[in-house]
Amino acid sequence: MPSESASTVLVVDDDEPIRDYLSAVLSFEGYRTECFGVSAEALEYLGRPDQPADLLLTDIRMPGMGGLELLSSAKRTRPNLPVVLISGLYELALAIEALEYGADDYLKKPVRPADVLTTVGKYLQHDTRQEEAAIQRALEQYLANRSDPLASEPIRTIFRSLGFRRYETFQHSKRVAALCRHFGVHCGLSEETLNRVELGALLHDIGKIGIPRNILLKPGPLTEDEWRVMRSHPSIGRRLMEPFAELHEEAAVVYGHHERWDGLGYPQGLIAEQIPLAARMFAIVDTFDAITSDRPYRPAQSIHTAKALIAQESDRQFDPQLVDIFLRIPDWDLDEIRRRHPDHAGDGSTPE
After folding, report:
1. pLDDT in tens, 280-313
2. What is the DSSP string of 206-269?
């Protein structure tokens, strides 16, 4: 549900299913939308100064007033309003030409959710205060009645706030949490410590709530400036957990999960045993999960391959003693955890 302070996107398309689709994508990410099937109605809306409008997203080819005419009229009415055109294959040259006449950007059909959010995010800063407050309320509720974090409703609430259904699956986080717990058993950790390691792993990317969607969902490589923003998510996660003294060990995983044994990690550049044990464990598990999961650019690789690649990074990226322990975990144990938490769960376990 968009907050009262959310940015408003005007969606103009004569095709109702496309309007509904674009509105659903934007609304889910916290934007308010006003939808119009006729350009003249959108222009009338823009002519009323009391009506909010932060960005105009319009199709090019429509009956009556087309997108280019709407662009021209909208810029006269509200000169600073960003306008993004949606073009079909045969209208692409027209859309590019329209950039010279005031259009700010264009999207090419078929439009994927990530493309919509990346483009809109260039011009609108999504306000995450409502989601951050929801995360902290959920943490408070969890602490009031601790239970299995993998089945906890407050924890599911956190993932709903994060929108992990789209850019970081709940299944991935459940899987690395279960792997960390099993790894901890082989390390001889106490039951209390195992519980803390598991919860910290589950919440490792909680700070991504504060990363702009256009960076988080960008389909291509990030620029150096964008990487600088992305690398702030451990610090954001720690800030969200700071009010809860009981979660200081879990917060150490959130804050330290991108540190490296050789000191080349972030955000602090800690070296070797300066990095909390749970964060050192998580770094190995997260790499294992990434290698054995499908990626857009390659299929999942075998457990054998993952272990070999982790061994190569011993005493560089990873704690060598922990690598030795992890490599001794039987492959069938690791495979069983992966099968228990597949990427596409059919058991209703996603935080819908």
Report:
1. 999 999 999 999 998 777 899 999 999 999 999 9
2. GGGGGS-HHHHT-SSPPPHHHHHHHTTHHHHHHHHHTT-GGGHHHHHHHHHTT--TTS--SSS-
Q: DSSP string spanning 287-321?
A: HHHHHTS-BTTBPPPPHHHHHHHHHHTBTTTB-HH
- Pair of tokens at residue 125: 């800063």
Give the DSSP letter string of 133-184: HHHHHHHHHHHHT---GGG-HHHHHHHHHHTHHHHS-HHHHHHHHHHHHHHH
Beta bridge partners of 105: 84
Say if residues 22 and 11 touch (Cβ distance below 8 Å): yes
Is the distance from CB of 203 to CB of 256 less than 8 angstroms?
no
Cβ atoms 24, 31 nearer than 8 A: no
> Which amino acid is located at 24 in the chain?
A
Q: What is the pTM of this model?
A: 0.71
Q: Read off the pLDDT of residues 158-178 as tens digits, 9 standing for 90 and up.
A: 877 776 444 346 788 899 999
- The owner of tokens 């109605």 is 41
Q: Which residue has the tokens 């089945």?
A: 151
**Matching residue, tokens 């924890």:** 155
Question: Where do we find the tokens 């990363």?
Answer: 211
Domains and CATH numbers, the chain: 8-123 (3.40.50.2300), 129-340 (1.10.3210.10)
Contact indicator for 302, 286 with CB cutoff of 8 Å: no
Residue 76, helix vs strand vs coil: helix
Contact 248, 200 (CB under 8 A): no
